[in-house]
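Consider a concrete sample entry:
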Amino acid sequence: MKEMAVTAREGAPSFKQWHPGLRILVGLGMVLLAGGLFLPDRNLALGFSVASSTVFAVALGIIGIARLAAAGTRRRLNLLRELVTDDPLATVIASDDGEIIHSNKAVDKLFGDVGRPSVLLMLARFTESPVSLIFRLQNRARERGMVSHRLVTAEGSLRLHIRHLGPAGFLWRFEEMPELLDAQGGGIGLPMLLLSPENRILGVNKALLGLVGRRPEHLDHLFRDLPIRNDGVNHLATRTGSQRVRVAEFHRQNGQREVFLLPCENESARPITRLFEDLPVALVRLSVDGVLQQVNRQARPLLGRFREGESRLGDLVQGLGRPVSEWLREAASGRASKRPEVVQLRDADHEVYLQIALARLVENGEIFLIAVLQDATELKTLEAQFVQSQKMQAIGQLAGGVAHDFNNLLTAISGHCDLLLLRHDEGDPDYGDLIQITQNANRAASLVNQLLAFSRKQNLQPEDLDLRDTLSELSHLLNRLLGEKVVLRVDHGKDLMPVRADRRQLEQVFMNLVVNARDAMPGGGEVRIEARNLVLESEMQRDRATIPAGRYVSISVSDNGSGIPRDRIDKIFEPFFTTKKTGEGTGLGLSMVYGIVKQTGGFIFVDSALGQGSVFEILLPALEGQVRTQATPAPGPPLIQAAGAREEGVVLLVEDEAPVRSFAAKALRMQGYEVIEASDAEEALRILDDPALHVDVFVTDVIMPGKDGPTWVKEALKRRPDTRVIFVSGYAEESFSRQQAEIGNSVFLPKPFSLGDLADRVRRQMAA
């Protein structure tokens, strides 16, 4: 559709195109001017001349205003043209009489060539009364500014959006809509129509359109023997002639009715056979005991291997949780729910799920069932993915909560052990036992970190890394882990892009993947680590993930071991899932790998085949430029200050866990600080009500009964704005980073912490 130039709207209008009032005003000015020129009385002639000048000035002012308004309209139209040119919806700018001023490319795709471009001709192919429709919609648009209208078409429907542009006309946008009933599910796939309480046809589905060959506007276009009766038989006008159908009605809450049309036995076998076979719906006629009496063309590919007249439905499908024969008997007696059931096809080459709805029919005293089939394989796949996602999220939340409680216990255990070690030297008989307690507490802390890694709530310390250096430094340790039977190959490009990650956690990822590869090759083999650059020009779909476009570093860890069975590959990242014997593993290794990679902002995928090995591929976002060197941290302070080097200051310690509070208070008092203890936020605020009390540092847990740490600290800082704050928590810092960012002079100390960690953090805050 070509753009048209409308001269009267784009350029200067001629005299005939002026408003009638303006033409009258100019005519009056001409008469007055003639009187001023030809009247013999000089005073009267002067009066006429002055009057004509005034009239002409008013006319010129009106013309100037009109020109300015026209120029503004042209500017708005030009801007609007630029905006709608690339609009994916078919859009036109039309005058009040429907003549099109501008149209975009989408109009050609939707309407094709309609000859002389006008809204009237565009809508004429969809409705018998386009003039009244345009008149009605434009009047509503003038009143409301914008109006929308759904227009039913043979292919579905159009949603019209009309906006009033003032003198410039109207903006029309045409949006193709899916078939309403099919978009809502269309019941169970049978031919159906939707009726209003007044028996007007509101919509039909594609199955009915395919059967009758046209979009009906009235019920008498479909049936010659009105009225239609629920559970009755009517004659339907199809493309191939009149066919008998049984009517099934379902009432909606708003008074509308869904009318389904079921095939019906006829005195002559040929018409009903043809109707049953040609219906664009998968249909099966069943006996009460489940024998497949008749299967139409659409249903045959769904059922796989069967024999019509011999096979039973119960031999073909499974998964109801009860015998199929019992379900069929309930349906035949009318007691079964009308809700479709999802079943799995037996003896299929791959997983195939069917959604089956049963309808009970009676013909000549014989009861039989009509089964409507739909392929539900994709639906079940999406459902399984959703359930897996929900399960992983629930386990992650559980892991985070358990880890928080464990961190409190481990803080108390390792902390009091540190206090005992201060009073025992290496020659003491109890020294070895204390070291064993400390080591096992550290092992437990490592296990908790794995839980937190899975739930993506651990504390990471990211830095810019060159993976070439990381892999080179790690190769020696990995070789020791693999042993003599397994060979390690490391291959990476010279131009490998840097990444940002926690070095310690990333090394743990590589070690876990390599150890798993070793265990998959008990007879020996080769583990290969490859790193390369990967640039995605557009987003990529893989498995259940969507990878945005960008630059990545791909690290793959592959082996030629036993491989992973297909039914287990979706479970390997779940915590505590393991195929190893008791005592050989916790089942947390791959879940930790998954959590670290996701927390770092990356992706992890696995490909495996039985007897051929496995490949784990990790994608990490790449950094631009070179790796920034990180300053080497200064050596940590001694476990406790030596005598004579004691600190000074007042610490308010707020911790609801009594063992943790006891350890922290003893450690700080041994350091020389005055410690005031509180078991919750409310007690801490009551202590601070004393204006004579001076406090240098708040040390507070984040999660507590009642008010949490950030909440009570904000209240306290209103009266003591210069006090330093140390937050401690068994959760990761990022879980409350937004709240901490609102509190100045605050730092974070993760649990479990040692005596030296606590003393060092308090010392730094005192000195800040």
